[in-house]
Design brief:
Elements lengths: L2 H14 L31 H12 L2 E4 L9 E2 L7 E3 L2 E3 L1 H7 L2 E8 L2 E7 L9 E2 L3 H15 L27 H5 L9 H14 L5 H7 L16 H14 L3 H10 L8 E4 L12 E3 L1 H12 L3 E2 L2 E2 L3 H7 L19 E3 L2 E3 L6 E6 L3 E6 L4 E7 L6 H13 L2
Parallel strand pairs: 2-6
Antiparallel strand pairs: 1-8, 3-4, 5-6, 5-16, 7-9, 8-9, 10-11, 12-13, 13-14, 14-15, 15-16
Helix pairs in contact: 1-12, 4-8, 6-7, 7-8
Length: about 400
């Protein structure tokens, strides 16, 4: 399916199917939003709103990143009359929010906020967990490590920096193939997370390092096939902690979070050794997620500061001979992947941070338009409708 067919199918589904009003009751108990792990990490819908907006910080270990002493200013410049096409008419952003379980929606361009909405009693001050949008944050940190010469080459093997991984499957994988989800490991995301998460994240003795070192089942040679999994970014996180001599959160605070002008504290969940489980778990306010997207849209610059080099932005927005397996239409029929960034267009001009249960930061490079969405479910035809809404936003 090409992108046009995908969008048409998504919009057609969105026009025909949506959640009835009564379905929204499953995320609330008489207007309250409980937190806790009683229903598992994400299985019970009743706990998602509360857990995904700060509740995880009350039940899981985490590290903090302090905001900038001089936050990058954002101006409220709300647009009126914004509408997007559906099968037999048009809808508004509020129509979209009435149809899908979205907790926050923000659209900005550079320093101007064009649209900002919250539902389920969420507010602008709440940190929203990212799920796998954290992988894209890890990508930005990887680029900074390369910019600073802490990592010599994107094509170095992980074991160059982690000699304890010498002879293991992940030790012999290049940083490029790790960030492209092409390690060659025999790992199935939806199946093996039931092993990876308890051992590396959720148990009282959780430890990322032995899980990565001990996963040596090989399906194929590295670089041959895109295979989305958590072990690839976890290995990169180990490399970055080693070359910086700091936790990822400490490094991110100094090298990314404060230089980009973040306004609020961010957090990152960890294993029992306080090592960030960096495939998920980065939490920030919507406005700071928007600042991250704007950093990408401006090719690594925030205000007058080059936070991440344009060289790295160029790297993750195009594909070379060593990235053939993750090109748009090859990795997936409707999308591409590169260095933990998802790509909606084949020319690299529209990319996305993607997270479980419909978390998104979508960036249109030509217009520098950024959309942030946080939500509590990914079922239904919301994605086609969201992309159509975003397309309308790029024309404002």
């Amino acid at each position: 399916m090409n992108k046009r067919q995908f969008l048409r199918a998504g919009v057609a589904w969105a026009a025909a199917a949506h959640l009835p009003a009564s379905a929204f009751d499953r995320w609330s108990t008489r207007g309250t939003y409980p937190i806790g792990l009683e229903g598992g990490l994400n299985r019970d819908p009743l706990y998602r709103v509360g857990n995904y907006s700060g509740g995880f910080e009350k039940v899981l270990p985490w590290r903090a990143m302090a905001p900038s002493p001089e936050p990058l200013a954002l101006r409220d410049s709300p647009v009126s009359g914004l509408r997007y096409p559906v099968a037999f008419g048009h809808r508004t952003p509020d129509d979209y929010l009435d149809r899908w379980p979205v907790t926050g929606l923000l659209v900005c361009r550079d320093s101007e906020i064009l649209l900002e909405r919250y539902r389920f009693a969420r507010t602008a001050s709440m940190r929203m967990t990212s799920w796998s949008m954290a992988k894209s944050v890890s990508s930005l940190l990887l680029g900074i490590c390369l910019d600073r010469g802490l990592i010599t080459s994107y094509d170095d093997e992980a074991q160059k920096y982690l000699p304890e991984l010498a002879g293991t499957l992940h030790g012999g994988v290049t940083l490029r193939n790790l960030s492209n989800m092409s390690s060659g490991a025999a790992v199935t995301h939806d199946v093996d997370n039931s092993t990876i998460y308890p051992r590396a994240f959720l148990s009282s003795g959780s430890d990322i390092a032995p899980v990565v070192a001990g996963w040596n089942r090989r399906a194929e040679e590295q670089g041959r096939r895109y295979n989305y999994n958590e072990l690839c970014p976890l290995t990169l996180g180990m490399v970055m902690r080693r070359v910086t001599g700091r936790s990822l959160s400490e490094f991110a605070e100094e090298a990314l979070w404060q230089p980009l002008g973040a306004q609020d504290m961010a957090t990152w969940t960890t294993d029992s050794h306080r090592n960030e489980f960096n495939c998920v778990g980065f939490a920030a306010t919507l406005r700071d997620w928007a600042r991250l997207g704007t950093l990408v849209a401006n090719r690594g610059r925030a205000g007058g500061t080059q936070v991440v080099s344009e060289t790295w932005v160029n790297e993750f927005t195009r594909w070379g001979p060593l990235d053939a397996q993750v090109r748009h239409g090859v990795a997936m029929g409707w999308a591409g992947y590169k260095a933990h960034m998802w790509h909606i267009k084949p020319d690299g001009s529209r990319l996305s941070f993607n997270g479980h249960h419909a978390q998104r930061v979508i960036v249109d490079m030509p217009t520098r338009t950024v959309l942030v969405q946080t939500a509590v479910d990914h079922l239904g035809g919301w994605q086609g409708e969201l992309l159509t809404l975003f397309e309308a936003c790029t024309r404002i």
